[in-house]
Amino acid sequence: MGARDLVVTTKAFVIGHPIKHSRSPLIHGTWISQHGLDASYEAIDVAPDQLPAFFKRLRRGEFAGGNVTIPHKQDVFALCDSVDPLATSIGAVNTLVVQDGQVHGTNTDYLGFLGNLDAEMPGWSERLDTAIVLGAGGAARAILVALQSRNVGSIVLLNRTRETAEELAAELAGSISVASLNAFNDVAPLAGLVVNTSSIGMHGSRFEGLDLATLPSHALVTDIVYTPLQTPLLAEAEARGLAVVDGLGMLLHQAVPGFEAWFGVRPQVDKPLRTKVEATLGH
Ligand code: NAP
User: Fold this and answer.
1) Is 239 found in the same domain as 174?
2) Which residues form the pocket of ligand 1, taking CB atoms under 6 Å from any ligand atom?
3) Backbone phi and psi for residue 189, each to the nearest 5 degrees, phi listed first
4) Same domain for 31 and 99?
């Protein structure tokens, strides 16, 4: 047997259902080629009832780990051998690392959100008194915990269904005030940051009744929706001269810790990667 036959490809994956839309194979594939690694990253469609069987495959050591996306971010909790305190406080796992037949769960959306804002708007969280978070779904969890980690004075969570926001705020430790979306114009004059974590902005949808003129001129508006890259919210904020950060950087930055854990190299989020992924997004 030649030395060539002994090389073992390190494999990683993203699981979801459906999974065809995922940009993760493009992101990780770009980094694998950039670093000349003998590695692979594949998208695998795993239906909810197939998750336990997939975890058996993981424990056999076929993969170094992978990403988890909708609808599995909460269901994998019960299947992991351990989940770190951060993912536990967020209540969602998006990254798995397999070591010695054990599957460890973590959450990198938190770091993706912070990494994106730190890169695009350095110092954004210094002296930030009030942040408005729009939407109280799965993605809002990591963002609320991330904002709490930066000691934001006051977090106001606004959601179409107020009860969902109340349940989420009660589940997360710390103080988060809750109201429905139509409270935006009352809270906005105090806000230094607005984060849209809801799915509004996708498929041509837009917020009704949010008056961005009520925000202070120093406010930063960011959207985690990245299809389209410039959502109606960001377009309006930019037209009003407010600072804006789009959601693609969050997707790119959340991929960094997983890649490093599976393949042992810390990759960079750079302009060529962003341009490559941006080319796959609708306008
Ligand atoms: P989700 O769990 O389904 O939550 C959706 C949220 O949007 C809920 O708060 C929901 O409010 C609200 N919403 C939906 N339709 C609405 C409407 N017509 N009017 C008002 N509110 C509405 O979704 P998610 O997983 O949190 O994801 C949300 C978005 O974030 C998606 O577009 C996703 O692609 C994006 N995302 C981006 C990244 C990134 O890396 N940039 C990461 C994760 C997610 P109700 O509670 O009232 O239903």
Assistant:
1) yes
2) 109, 112, 135-140, 159-161, 164, 197-200, 202, 205, 224-226, 247, 250-251, 254
3) -60, -20
4) yes
